[in-house]
Amino acid sequence: MFIEHRNVCRACRLKQCFVAGMNPRAVQSEREQKGSPDQMQDVEEDDYKDLSSPDTCSVEIQTDVDDQKPVDHTVPLPSMETEMARFSEQLVEMHRAVCSYVDPIVKKEESEIKMEEGSSATKVVFMDAFFNPGLMSPRTPLRITGERIATVQDVMDEWRRNFVLFSDWLRALPEFLQLPIEDQIVLAKNRYGPFHWWLCANWTVQAGCEGVCYSNGAYFPRQIEAQCIPDVKGSSSRMFDSLSVPIKELQLDETEVVLMLAVILFSDEVTELADLSQAGKDHVRIVGNRFVRMLHHHVNSKDYGEVMEEDEQNVSESQAAVRIAKMMILLSATTNLVYLTSDNIQLMEVLHVVPSEYLCHEVQLIHDSYETP
């Protein structure tokens, strides 16, 4: 059985355990190392050192050595909780900045437009597209409104624009840039699908539309009769039911959405990452664990309402544990969506932009539907 399928099955069993009355605080991540309390303390201290290192901090702004002020040893060092909160805030700021990128509008001559139309069928190598996303699409403003049903052109424009957002997001993340170029390409090739599904699911909740919300004001409907392209695998309905509905019930805040996106991108439980170098695998695992810890810290720090004083800590911990468990189930649902759609007709043959063996997970298209009768 593939790991993706196994994780989905385990997620279903976890739901049943909660319904049967299992203590949520008994949930333990597989990534947690077993050992003595002293060993666990050493691990936490090492993790804290990793978080505090300027080489590994998320969205950290570096200054020249000459501009640094002498260290005041009388001032206490910030706690691990404070540092995690700060890194989470920086990650959210980076996400906002990337989503706000808009290319200036350049008026093109008629001859330039004809040249572009004539070369629209030219394929682009994945590496060129990823490191030069302007080859794919201009950075248009994100319109998360879901105000109209998507056309075929809307579907293709959304795919390209979301790929540009994906490229900008990863290349703005210091943890990604610390990987060798070869490992960056391997990770990027295998993470666009989860990235796209997670954002579309959250955009669907934000817009309140009945389908997959796009970034261009359109949405791909769940109703088959309204679809511009047949969704033979039912991936749009699956996304709505397994991601958008639970996300709406959880009422994820912006920090949780962004941290989950980072966790998804640096998840090390997908077999496709076998092509990473050993150093790359270790880096992805360490960074992924760090983002998971940041997510745990953020959820544990949330206010869950008024409770009796003597039970406040226990109730808060239980609610936080249940919330984190449900969010991890969403990670499995995202992985399952990617695996579900990976064996369909490739979108690239229609878009003529990226070789089909590289990116294939995000939209389900039937090639025959593009042939003129």
Helix-strand pattern: HHHHHEHHHHEEHHHHH
Please tell me the overall pLDDT.
74
Number of domains: 1
Low-confidence stretches: 29-49, 51-67, 111-122, 343-373
Give the helix tally.
14
- How many individual β-strands? 3
Output the CATH topology.
Retinoid X Receptor
Coarse structural class: mainly alpha
Largest sheet: spatial strand order? 1-3-2
Q: What's the architecture, going by CATH?
A: Orthogonal Bundle
- CATH homology group: Retinoid X Receptor
State the shape. globular
Keywords: Nucleus, Receptor, Transcription, Transcription regulation
Organism: Caenorhabditis remanei (Caenorhabditis vulgaris)
Pfam family, one: Hormone_recep
GO molecular function, one term: zinc ion binding
Description:
Residues 26-55 are annotated as: Disordered. Residues 83-367 form the NR LBD domain. Pfam families: Hormone_recep (PF00104). InterPro entries: C.elegans_NHRs, NHR-like_dom_sf, Nucl_hrmn_rcpt_lig-bd, Nuclear_hrmn_rcpt, Znf_NHR/GATA. The structure is a single chain. This protein has one domain (3-19, 92-102, 120-305, 312-368): Retinoid X Receptor (Orthogonal Bundle). The chain is 54% helix and 4% strand. It has 14 helices and three strands. It has helices at residues 3-19, 37-52, 80-99, 110-118, 126-131, 152-171, 174-177, 181-189, 192-207, 235-250, 254-265, 278-300, 312-341, 348-351; strands at 143-149, 211-213, 216-221. Strand 2 and strand 3 (216-221) form a beta hairpin. Helix 11 (254-265) packs antiparallel against helix 12 (278-300). The model is unreliable at 29-49, 51-67, 111-122 and 343-373 (pLDDT under 50).
